């Protein structure tokens, strides 16, 4: 299957592609780091996993491969950084290219999910939990990946929490 066929923007499409569910990995692609979250095979709960320093694609791919194989990941959700008016800039195009590269590298379906407000929501949640600034800085990207992934699985499963 062509990598372009594996990349989409419909949560319902991801659910159709993976009718039996399966663990997913969520990524918040920053310029310096990649926030990583995972969810259970039943697509109920997303949780923060870790933050990787971002490097060249080959190094990122190798690190992600370890996680994907260890956790039997069946699909990938990547945050798509749209502008507030819904338009896309250079960061969104870079995320699309990264998604195509991951789809080609792993032959897994990739869902691009609108990430507007994910970092702000993650920060607000951590402030509400009285997490120190230092800990927030360490965990913000993984927490943002969790919000991205949870939004996608809620949409894919028709969760009433939307």
Explain briefly what this protein structure is.
With about 160 residues, the protein is an alpha/beta fold. It contains six helices and six strands, in the order αβαβββαβαβαα.
Task: Give an overview in words.
It is a single chain. This protein has 162 residues and is an alpha/beta fold. It contains 6 helices and 6 strands. It has helices at residues 3-6, 11-17, 57-70, 90-106, 118-128, 133-157; strands spanning 7-8, 24-29, 33-39, 46-53, 75-80, 110-114. The protein has a 6-stranded mixed beta sheet with strand order 1-6-5-2-3-4, with helices on both faces. Helix 4 links the parallel strand 5 and strand 6 (110-114). The longest helix has 25 residues, at 133-157. The model has no long low-confidence stretch (mean pLDDT 88).
User: What structural class results from the helix and strand content?
Assistant: alpha/beta
Alpha plus pi helix count:
6
Compute the gyration radius: what is it? 15 Å
DSSP strand (E) fraction? 15-25%
- Taking the alpha carbons of the first and last residues, their distance comes to 32 Å
Can you give the helix content as a percent range? 40-55%
**How does the major sheet shape up?**
6 strands, mixed
The strand line-up of the biggest sheet is 1-6-5-2-3-4
Average pLDDT score: 88
N-to-C SSE series?
HEHEEEHEHEHH
Give the CA-based shape: globular
The beta-strand count equals: 6
């Amino acid at each position: 299957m062509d990598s372009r066929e594996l990349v989409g923007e419909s949560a319902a499409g991801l659910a159709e592609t993976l009718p039996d569910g399966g663990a997913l990995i969520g990524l918040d692609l920053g310029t310096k780091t990649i926030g990583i979250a995972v969810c259970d095979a039943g697509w109920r709960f997303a949780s923060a996993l870790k933050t990787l320093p971002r490097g060249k694609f080959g190094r990122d791919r190798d690190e992600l491969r370890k996680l994907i194989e260890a956790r039997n990941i069946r699909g990938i959700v990547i945050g798509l950084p749209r502008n507030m008016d819904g338009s896309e800039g250079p960061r969104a195009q870079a995320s699309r290219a990264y998604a195509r590269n991951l789809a080609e590298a792993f032959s897994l379906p990739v869902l691009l999910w609108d990430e507007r407000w994910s970092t702000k929501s993650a920060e607000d949640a951590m402030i509400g939990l009285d997490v120190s600034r230092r800990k927030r800085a360490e965990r913000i990207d993984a927490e943002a990946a969790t919000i991205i992934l949870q939004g996608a699985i809620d949409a894919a499963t028709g969760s009433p929490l939307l």
